[in-house]
Amino acid sequence: xxxxxxxxxxxxxxxxxxxxxxxxxxxxxxxxxxxxxxxxxxxxxxxxxxxxxxxxxxxxxxxxxxxxxxxx
Length: 72
Description:
By secondary structure, the protein is of the alpha+beta class. It has a domain at 25-72: N-terminal domain of TfIIb, CATH 2.20.25. The chain contains one helix and three strands. The protein has one helix spanning 4-20, and strands spanning 42-48, 53-59, 66-68. The protein has a three-stranded antiparallel sheet, with no helix packed on it. 6% of the residues are buried.
């Protein structure tokens, strides 16, 4: 059994790490979060028919929703 002060310190440390770290690799772009299901999207390149060209997109692995990348 873990002492209460130690357990509290561990929980606070875990929360601090989650708040300060956004991604696994600092040099990579932050993944987009799907607006429908909340999952992290995968970075892909797909043919977009309305644009008639291949574009960089974020694609949700759960629901298949697509979002444009590098759009400001």
